[in-house]
Automatic annotation (TrEMBL):
Keyword Protease in annotation: no
Keyword Transmembrane found: yes
Topology class, membrane: Multi-pass membrane protein
Transmembrane intervals: 20-45, 51-75, 87-110, 122-141, 153-172, 178-198, 218-239, 251-270, 290-312, 324-348, 360-383, 389-407, 419-441, 447-465
Source taxon at top rank: Bacteria
Name listed for the protein in its UniProt record: Lipopolysaccharide exporter
Organism name: Arthrobacter bambusae
Alphabetized InterPro entries for the sequence: Poly_Biosynth_Transport
Localization, UniProt: Cell membrane
Similarity field: Belongs to the polysaccharide synthase family.
Leader sequence segment: none
Keyword terms, alphabetized: Cell membrane, Membrane, Transmembrane, Transmembrane helix
Amino acid sequence: MTTVSGQDRTLGNRAASATLWGGVNMALGRIVQFATTIIVARMIAPEHFGALAVAIVVQTIATNMAELGATAALARGTGDPDKIAPTVFSIALVTSGVMTAAAIALAPALAAAFDDPAATPVIQVLSLTILLQGAGALPSTMVWREFLQKPRVVVDLCSLVTVLVLVVPMALDGWGAMALAWSRVGGQLVALAGYWIITPQRYAPGFDRTVAAEILRLGMPLALANLVVFVTLNVDYLLIGRMLDPTALGLYLLAFNLAGLPSSVITAVIRATAVPTFGRLFAEGTLGAVAGRFVAGISYCAFPISAMVIALSHPLIVVAYGDAWAPAGIALATLGVFGATRILVEVFADLCVGAGRTVWLFWLQVAWLVSLTPALIVGIQWWGIAGAGIAHAAVACLVVIPLYVVALKSVLAVGAWELVRGSLVPLAAAIIAGSTAWLASVSVTEPLMALLLGGFLGGAVYVALTYRRGRLLVQTVRGLLRERTSLPAGGHTGAGES
């Protein structure tokens, strides 16, 4: 019993350290990325963002299919990397190469499907990142598996700075969407080199048929689920591009990215450790007991941010991007609701992957896509880009989250109430705080003053309403960090943080 407790404490402290450094990584990365978007948005027209949106849809779908989910078997941390890694590497290289060639060859047809022929060269350039990500799939997964988030901060920051250094002169020179595409290729090259430098173990490609069968048994449903979820999250771009125009698509892309900022930051921080941690906890039989606490802690941090995005959507858009982008504010307000629900969805998905239930995950994503597509068509027809946000929020709240809760009840042997009850108080407090922020800012004509006043009052209300819960969360994090520093020098096992 003592040995298991020590292992749990070691895992908890390695995960806590990696989460802390993952948070630093995400904070720095999002600051640089946000600054880059602001700078570029003031240099190029909204329709250029529409072309980029089309290219990103293609790139994202291909990237998430490129290694057929093979890295999931390695990331869960329950297998021998010496046995698994060479086969994973081979699968990632071959499939990413095929996906890259297909994306380049089919770029004209794909751009035509989105009714934006100008996106053809942008798709072809951005497709190069698929091959680069495939070449870096193994080292980046080893960094993830071994909780090496501290050195990853340097790699990711260098990659983002490379994007910024490349995109500004290109945009000033009139490259338009191609500036965004080529800068991403440069950033991916830097990331590829960095991950190979910091990976704890290096492997050459190899192939074991038995290992490949086991990897693909777990990975293929995950890859298909990733494909479906990215189609789900990008079908709105396709519909808006065909039902409206490239300018509307550019406005919507900007609003969607800003609305998803809280979920992307928080889930990226959690994913720095979630799958390897959840995999190990599930193997020990303790994941169900702690799943509700994970959901509660994430909800506490995420909901108020989304509430502020919804309440202050118009001044936020104008202050960040300028008056030319003001029409995106109405889409941002409706997409903010989806941003909040998406955080829970992402955590539930990680719980499924950690538990090894990737087939269930696939069918949940299929149900999401089937429900969302008609809702988007109706929403866009009635309310334009704002209607797309309404459709996303309605389907996530009424279909997706209930399905995940039902699935996880069986997987983790835990009650639905235990999973979600910790998120109800943060949700109610966030609604009140957001309402306060909106009332405080709605009559202020100066966008910056409205943003500052609404943000300050809304944040103060949320802290006051959730003071006890927030204090408990801080004490829990401090306790984990104190335990980490009190461990003896040999307390860590494996390639932990240094």
